[in-house]
Each structure stands twice: as structure tokens, then as C-alpha cells.
Specification:
This protein is mainly alpha-helical and about 300 residues long. It is about 85% helix and about 0% strand.
């Protein structure tokens, strides 16, 4: 693969120096917040015992992926920005792109599996805990991780067009499956609520007129996952457009303003997810508060 095939725009750094400084500084800040936020989430998930183990494992995988992006990918991206003008970018770019396909694709896959997990919890009922076991979820996650690693190395060593097409398919498939799961959950919950009202129409005073508490907790978990999915759609949409342009019309400029902006928005998702966990999950929020109070700088 020749360097000219990547059509690198070396002059954008010189022409857009203020923008370059902003993107570089912003990514350094996002790396720090992603590391700190996801570290707190991992500690909090270790303390919380009310979340079903397979669901907790998926949340841990997503938080660990975001943590790795902050520790590994974003520093490499900042180094890549510094090396574009010097022309010593090729190996760094290949490494960065491989990691992007691995971690970003794995995040999409994990979030989608979380949606499917919540749908199965609703459809299977009491059979859910015997069907969706921690061992099976771990095997599925390992398969997704290996598939994303293979896609990343395919981009670096074999075919960029194939890897871009694979990324396009993964985004579309994940989005479609997630929307389907949440739509199915919404209609099933409405049907369940209607049945409860019909069956207990004469006992509303005794039962408080509401649905069972376990269903309420389930709805809160589904709401959290839905917000995570919306954040993924928002943050991955610019990269989705970029993949379309690079695959369909072969418009691809490494280091262009559109390229680095789209990647920065994707990395922003790693900082946004811990905020969503704390906002929508009370147990996680309380565990994070407890952890912060135990730190010397916050104990006073």
C-alpha cells in the first residue's frame, strides 16, 4: 500500500493552526476525562450488586473499552496530529486505525448486545437467568472482540475498502437491531401494563394502581441503555458519513478537518457514557459518590 493512496492533506495543519491547536487540546482533555470517568464507573460497578451479572459484565466491557480509548487511542491520535506535518505518520496512522476499528466497533457491538439482552429479559421471563448466563455472554463478547480485531488488521494489511464497507455494515446492523429491540420492548411493556390494569381493575387501591417494582427497575435499565444508544448514534454519525464518502465516492483525506473532527466526536462518546450511567442509574451514581468521598482530595 503506497502512501499516495491515502491522499494525505499535509497543508491543513498550516492553514488551520488555531483549529489544530483546539482539536489537539480538546483530545488531551477528553482522554483525561475518559480515563477518570470510566475508572469511577468500573469501581462503582464492582460495588453494585443489584445488576444482573451478564448485564453488569456488558456494562463493564463498554466502560473498559472507553477506558482503553482514553489510555491508548486518544494519546496516539494526539501524536498523529503532531506528526502529520512532519510526514512521519504512516505507521502511526495504521496503528491508530486498527485500534479505532477494534475499540469503536466493539463498543457498537457491546451496546447492541445490551439491547438484545434487555429484550430477552422481557421475553423469556423466569427462563432468562437460565438461558442468558454469564459464560455465554462472555463467549459472545470474545467473538465480537476477535471479529473487530480482524477487521482492524484487514484495514491495515489488506483492503481499506473492505474494512470501510465492514464498518459501514456494522454501524447499520447495530443501529437497526437496537431500534428493533427497543421498539419491541416498548410495545411489550405497554401490553404488559394494559394486562395488569385489566386483571387488577378492582384492586387498584390495594396495589397502588402501578406495575410491579421489578418492572420499574427493568424500565430504568432499558432507559439507560437507550440513552447510551442515542449517544452512540450522535457521536458515530459523522464517522458514518465519512465511511460512506470514503467507500462510495472514494473521498478520503487522512488528517483533513472532516476526518479529525469526526474522530474527535467518536472519542467524545467515551467521556459521555460515564455521565449517562451516573445520570440514569441511581445505584451507580451513589457508588461513584461514595468512591469520590473516599479520595483524599474530596474527603475534606
Amino acid at each position: 500500500m503506497e502512501t499516495s493512496e491515502l491522499q494525505v492533506n499535509f497543508h491543513w495543519v498550516i492553514d488551520q493552526t488555531p483549529f489544530f491547536v483546539f482539536i489537539f487540546s480538546f483530545n488531551v482533555f477528553l482522554a483525561f476525562t475518559a480515563i477518570l470517568g470510566n475508572t469511577l464507573i468500573l469501581i462503582a460497578l464492582h460495588k453494585v450488586s443489584s445488576i444482573h451479572p451478564p448485564t453488569k459484565f456488558l456494562l463493564r466491557c463498554l466502560a473498559m473499552t472507553d477506558f482503553c480509548v482514553g489510555v491508548i487511542v486518544q494519546p496516539l491520535f494526539a501524536a498523529f496530529l503532531m506528526q502529520i506535518e512532519r510526514g512521519k505518520w504512516f505507521i502511526l496512522h495504521m496503528t491508530l486505525t486498527t485500534l479505532n476499528f477494534t475499540f469503536c466497533g466493539f463498543s457498537l457491538a457491546t451496546a447492541t448486545v445490551m439491547s438484545v439482552d434487555r429484550l430477552l429479559a422481557l421475553l423469556l421471563g423466569l427462563r432468562y437467568r437460565h438461558t442468558v448466563t454469564l459464560r455465554r455472554v462472555r463467549c459472545l463478547v470474545v467473538c465480537f472482540l476477535l471479529a473487530n480485531i480482524a477487521t482492524g488488521f484487514t484495514y491495515s494489511l489488506c483492503s481499506q475498502d473492505f474494512a470501510n464497507s465492514a464498518g459501514f455494515v456494522v454501524i447499520i446492523s447495530s443501529l437497526f437491531l437496537s431500534v428493533f429491540c427497543h421498539a419491541k420492548i416498548f410495545f411489550k411493556l405497554r401490553q404488559h401494563q394494559a394486562q395488569v390494569r385489566y386483571q387488577h381493575v378492582g384492586h387498584e387501591q390495594a396495589n397502588g394502581g402501578g406495575i410491579p417494582m421489578n418492572i420499574e427497575r427493568y424500565k430504568k435499565t432499558v432507559c439507560t441503555i437507550a440513552w447510551v444508544q442515542l449517544a452512540l448514534v450522535f457521536c458515530y454519525f459523522p464517522m458514518f458519513i465519512f465511511l460512506i464518502l470514503s467507500t462510495v465516492v472514494h473521498w478520503y483525506k487522512v488528517g483533513s478537518i472532516f476526518n479529525v473532527s469526526a474522530l474527535t466526536v467518536v472519542y467524545f462518546n467515551c467521556t459521555l457514557n460515564p455521565v449517562l450511567y451516573c445520570w440514569k442509574m441511581r445505584e451507580v451514581r451513589e457508588a461513584v459518590k461514595t468512591t469520590l468521598k473516599q479520595l483524599p482530595c474530596f474527603s475534606s
